[in-house]
Amino acid sequence: MEKQWWQDALRVIQYNLQIQDTDRMVPEEIAAKACEAGANAVVINAGGIYAWYRSRIPFHHINEYLPAKGNLLEDLIRCCHALGNKVIGRFDFSKTDDVVYLQHPEWFVKDSEGKPVCYGSGRMGSWSLLMSTCINGGYRNEAFAVKVMEEALDCLEIDGIFYNAPHMEECYCENCRRKYRSLYAKELPEDKKDWEPDWQTQCLKDNMKLLYRTVKERRKEVPVILYYGTYREDGTGLPENLDLRYETADMVCTEAQDILSAGKKRLPFSWKPTLNMKLGQYAGEAPRPFGIIHSCPGMDWRHTGLPAAEYEFWLSQIPAANGQLWHSLTGFDAVITDKRLLRVMKKVTRRAALSDSLMQEAVSAARTLLLWNAGVSELGFTQGLMDCHIPFDIMDIWHMDLDRMKTYKTVILPGDFPTDSAVTDILGKYVEAGGSLYAEKTDAAITQALAGLLGIRPEACTGHDISAAYGVLEPEGEALNQALMETKYIPVKGELLYVSAEKEAVKLMTFIPPFAPPDGVGAPPERAGLPVTHTGIPLLLENRVGKGRVLTGFFELSRLMLEIGLEDQKQLFGNCISYLNGEETEFDGALLPEGIFAYPYRAGEKFLVHLVNGVGSRPLKNTVECHHLEFAVRGWKEGKVSRVFSALEGAPVSWEENDGWIRIRLESLLVWDIIVME
After folding, report:
1. Per residue in 503-523, pLDDT tens?
2. Are strands 538-545 and 506-512 parallel, antiparallel or unpaired?
3. Which of 61, 291, 503, 611 could form a disulfide with 318 if both were Cys (CB 3.0 to 4.6 A apart)?
């Protein structure tokens, strides 16, 4: 099959246009600025809430600021095409004017009391009210959205389609009640938590399937781009099945909003863009995911930019994590008042173009695989892996694959990952074939099969809300002692599992019970002595199975790394993964400072290591330049390295080959660099 334009590396700028800026839009200038910034595709408002062309579809609100003469959107498309840039039309059918509601109330979302849902009703100015449209109503389907798509594809030379805000809102309208009754043979519950788990997903799929078919019947070559979900930061979400997304889309995207306006106590994870891209790395044949980065510190402050250092750090993670960069701006160059964000955007986009040329056919060099179910445990392990500079990839619950699993030396099984008989069988076969498994388990509901894999007896009980407790490495756990030799006690708290080890299993770390209840840990110090200085209760247990081994933590190390993050807790985790990976480790970033993220890849005869610098207190005000960075890459069997260089920042690099490792020293790192070994 002939390669399509959208299967090449893309760098996208999305202009979120404000209708009051319409008269300041000069198509030639906008197209030229996008090209100058290094973009090869632009996303531009086309239809839905506002039509940016002279639509003839009833109820399609035409931008009242459009010039009386000419065709502004068509001119902009033509100018972009003249410079070699593709144009993706943005459509949003999630809301429309109150006057449409007055004529077709059956098209709109209704709350549990049967009232419509209105957005921004307190907005000042001469604006109409915006009402939420129902995903199962006519507006989002044949009565309106289909007609708009047919018209737009006929009259606009757009190269792609992007659907903004396509998801289902909570709705109790008659359309939804009727559909729910048809699907599940029962009434739609009044409490959302009682809805069938696939209800909203099914409604989105049905709506997008209709619109996708409409696009392909009109112009088969035009790709459709859809959002994919990632996770909730409290770990209560569910992983999204990308198979469902690709049934109604050709490419997928997700946002990593750096919402600073919510305050320092609610800062997003510093590695959010990285994790988003890893979650979008589809196992099948599909383009790399888009990482959308909004330039603002929150939509409530969308007319200003993120701090320059923070913005550059956030943006740089997308290409470093092998995603496709997608900028989201409010307005365009001529009306954007914060010029700092334009400088950063251009700088990173141009570097992304260099990265794209180096990353052709690049594959991850990670030897560690994190099983993913979007829970707190998975987020905690992500924190530990990023902080310990351990390269990793992700396998979600929907794509459990033994053959792919066998390409990794170590698999991490989070505590909240479902372990039914099918999963247990896959993990058992993986270990028996020589794989290493790091498991975390604090739930007493252990099946007989899993107990055998972990090397414990089936009887177990959970300890709740443990505090003032410790773990101690046993002599058999000497391999986990790196950088922990000067401490005896490793702090432990939270949930743990009291287990009895089978005789062939080896205790690497054991439990020291609390020396006091929480209200007695501070005073008096005369009573701070440990009542029990040693137990046989395992906290880390190694079990050999076939050619492989299982290392199980019976305490919440993942949560400790996420919520507390003491040095010794992360060091212990890093030691465990290093021990399991053994000589199959290809990258050693142990000497890199925390706050620098590392992403190693193999690309033909090259080995590439992206480094992204986020050192400092967030939100970053200044870039903290780092000096004398050291890391190592395991040498090639094919021959010696001929050259090592800094591809983006041009910093001096030195290296030496020793004991099968290429040890590299980078003199300085500002924000993002790619170290290339040939």
Report:
1. 999 999 999 999 999 888 988
2. antiparallel
3. 291
Q: At what angle do helices 308-320 and 339-358 cross, to 10 degrees?
A: 20
CA dihedral of 526, 529, 531, 535, whole degrees rounded to 10: 170
Nearest-angstrom CA–CA distance, 98 and 131 = 6
Nearest to 163 by CA among 197, 200, 131, 205: 205
- Tokens representing residue 58 in the block: 């009833």
Residue 481: count of CB within 10 angstroms of its CB:
15
At residue 662, does pLDDT exceed 80?
yes
Q: In what order do the strands lie in the sheet with 596-603?
A: 363-364, 596-603, 606-613, 672-677, 644-646
H or E, element range at 313: helix 308-320
With a cut of 90, say whether residue 300 has pLDDT above it. Answer: yes
Comparing C-alpha atoms, which of 345, 321, 266, 326 is closest to residue 298? Answer: 266
Sort 188 into a burial class: Cβ within 10 Å, 0-12 / 13-18 / 19+: buried
pLDDT at 189 over 80: yes
Detail the DSSP E strand segments found in 11-85.
12-16, 41-48
Q: For residue range 215-234, what is the model confidence (pLDDT) as tens digits?
A: 999 999 999 999 999 999 99
Burial class of residue 637, CB neighbours in 10 A (0-12, 13-18, 19+): exposed
What per-residue confidence (pLDDT) applies to 3? 85
Residues facing residue 157 across a β-bridge: none
Calculated CA dihedral for residues 553, 555, 559, 561, nearest 10 degrees: -60
| Reported pTM | 0.96
Q: Taking residues 225-247, what's their average pLDDT?
A: 93
Q: In whole angstroms, give the CA distance from residue 369 to residue 444.
A: 25
At 341, is the secondary structure helix, strand, or coil?
Answer: helix
pLDDT of residue 336: 97
Q: Place 1 in a pLDDT band, splitting at 50, 70 and 90.
A: low
Taking each helix axis as running N to C, give the angle between helix 72-82 and helix 27-36, from 0 to 180 degrees, rounded to the nearest 10: 40
User: DSSP per residue over 561-590, as a string?
Assistant: HHHT--HHHHHHHHHHHHHHHGGG--EE-T
pLDDT of residue 411: 98
* Cα–Cα distance measured from residue 32 to residue 80, given in angstroms and rounded to the nearest whole number: 8
Helices (H), 124-230: 145-155, 174-184, 199-218
Residue 2 is given by DSSP the state P
Average pLDDT, the chain: 95
Q: Bridge-partner residues for 424, per DSSP? A: none
Q: Using alpha carbons, select from 290, 336, 297 the residue that is nearest to residue 12.
A: 290
Q: Give the pLDDT confidence score for residue 310 in this predicted structure.
A: 98
Considering Cα of 664, then 586, then 392, then 498, what sign does the dihedral take? negative
Q: What integer pLDDT is reported at residue 638 of this predicted model?
A: 61
Show Cβ contacts of residue 171 under 8 Å, excluding neighbours closer than 6 positions: 109, 110, 111, 132, 134, 135, 136
Taken in order 195, 201, 206, 207, the sign of the CA dihedral is: positive
Pairing label, strands 12-16, 324-330: parallel
DSSP state of 264: G
Mean pLDDT for the stretch of residues 138-149: 98
618: left (phi over 0), alpha (psi -120 to 50) or beta: beta
Give 432's Cβ-side CA count (13 Å radius).
9
Tokens describing residue 335: 């009306």
Is a pLDDT exceeding 90 seen at residue 388? yes
Q: Judging by DSSP bridges, how do beta strands 436-440 and 548-553 pair with one another?
A: parallel
pLDDT at 637 over 80: no
**Whole-angstrom distance, CA of residue 53 vs CA of residue 56:** 9
